[in-house]
Amino acid sequence: MTATIRKDWDTYFMDIAYMVSTRSRCPRRHVGAVLVQGKKLLGTAYNGAPMGVPDCSEEGCMIVEQYEVVHQADGSEEMVKKQRCIRTIHAEQNLLLFTDRIDREGSTVYVTDQPCWTCANMLTNSGVTEIVFHRPYLKDTEKVTRMMEQRGIVFRQLLQYEPPQQAVEEIQKEHM
Questions:
Q1: CATH number of the domain that 27 lies in?
Q2: Is 58 a catalytic residue?
Q3: Any idea which residues are catalytic in this one (predicted)?
């Protein structure tokens, strides 16, 4: 009899977040999120258009451009252009919409991608005490990390994590 290696909890819950992300029909990025209290899974969500509304794969992305002033280490400022889709509700937002505040108190959110500024703002007021992500979102990393430190929320990236092959294949199949 061969002994199987049991996955650690971070890998287990991030695997679930990746599998949830395969439900997304967003052509830009599939994101999944799960809410965990202790070792108990309380909710899952993915990014997509509101229920009953055509999604990006049906009607295309609704891209808006925004400009943001970024303060450089040398004291100078740089204007940075960002593009984002406004048709899609982010996975973290859906997770907050479909879970109860009482369940979020002291809980952990596992999300495939680092939350953007808006989602990070929402999560900081949601009652969660930890956010674990895999893929970075470089546009907002610095200010989101700073906010999490200010709020005392554990904010960590799983650097050595490998998504489940089935989820990777499903996401790649969507983009062919």
A1: 3.40.140.10
A2: no
A3: 92
